[in-house]
Specification:
The protein is α/β, with parallel strands linked by helices. It is built from eight helices and 13 strands. The chain binds NADP nicotinamide-adenine-dinucleotide phosphate.
């Protein structure tokens, strides 16, 4: 949409136009310290319509925008009229839905220096959905090092807000997935130090929704939604040592995406950590 404003143009008045204006404005007397003097009224002779380009819209970079959570984030951001780009190793990947045509897909790895240079051009906010499983050292690299590289590059580029999809603390399970959690914690610490006022960490537990694997759609909501309904009211049980993690309610990928996009674009969204209950609460808000 273009914004139209009218610009007022002042001219030095000719004798003719002065007479004309006196006729028109004879009832307009302006205040003056000299009682005999009528101040020269401000004259508008002509209004020219000029077109001002719209203010630059927000540009969101979704790291891992072709993944399960990332694709929900891209869709959510597009529905708010944001301009969206994504970076991942495979670029666009297998997604063949109309929304995907509106995303600018960059191919690159966060573990390769310089990969982010082009993708970060004019970007105002970043949401990182990059993470994964594997050997301990791989998990540390992908959840930690890769995201730390992205956080540093975004900070250097002057990006205002950065949202990192981390994960809920699962107590004992953290030990079994050491590289995963240590990587997440290292990236969280980097984000809080580099984006003191614009860094938001989301810590979901299990995320449900429709996960696309190749051309197949897997409806994880069949398990996740009923559990979410029951467990969101079991917060006290979540504090029990050892079994607490079992009672962390799952959240939907669309709820995570909604909160991530809001956190990335709302300048008054509080920086810091948002746990599962915070995600459920924020995603319920209009
Ligand atoms: N799913 C859950 O239940 C759950 C629960 C809690 C937290 N989380 C966290 O939420 C985030 C998103 O999870 P998800 O389930 O959406 O995972 P996902 O589907 O596996 O997506 C991971 C994304 O990261 C990209 N990626 C991996 N390595 C990369 C690299 N070196 N450089 C650039 N991009 C890279 C992948 O694309 P390419 O392979 O094309 O590079 C993919 O787009 C992760 O951090 C995960 O730990 C997920």
């Amino acid at each position: 949409m273009r914004i139209i404003v009218s610009r007022l143009i002042q001219h030095s008045s000719s004798p003719f136009s002065r007479l004309h204006n006196v006729g028109l404005l004879r009832n307009v007397r302006l205040l003056s310290t000299d009682s005999n003097k009528v101040d020269e009224p401000f004259k508008v002779e002509e209004a020219e319509t000029v077109q001002v380009p719209p203010p630059p819209s927000e540009k969101l970079l979704v790291l891992g925008g072709n993944g399960f959570v990332g694709s929900h984030v891209c869709r959510e951001a597009l529905s708010h009229g944001l301009s969206v780009c994504s970076l991942s190793r495979s670029g666009r990947s297998s997604i063949k839905e109309p929304w995907a045509d509106k995303v600018v897909w960059h191919q690159g790895s966060l573990l390769v220096p310089d990969s982010l240079k082009d993708a970060l051009n004019d970007v105002t906010a970043v949401v990182s959905c990059v993470g994964g499983f594997g050997s301990n050292s791989h998990m540390y690299k992908i959840n930690g090092t890769a995201n730390i590289n992205a956080i540093r590059a975004a900070a250097d580029q002057g990006v205002k807000r950065f949202v990192y999809i981390s994960a809920a603390d699962f107590g004992v399970a953290n030990y079994l997935l050491q590289g995963y959690y240590e990587g997440k914690k290292a990236a969280e610490a980097e984000l809080l130090s580099k984006f003191t006022y614009g860094g938001v960490i989301l810590r979901p537990g299990f995320i449900h929704g429709t996960r696309q694997v190749g051309s197949m759609k897997i409806p994880l909501g069949i398990i996740g939604s009923p559990l979410e309904m029951v467990l969101q009211h079991a917060k006290p049980l979540n504090r029990l040592p050892l079994i607490g993690a079992l009672f962390t309610p799952p959240v939907s990928a669309s709820a995570v995406a909604k909160v991530a996009v809001r956190a990335a674009t709302d300048p008054v969204f509080p920086p810091g950590i948002v746990d599962v209950y915070g995600i459920l609460r924020y995603s319920d808000q209009k």
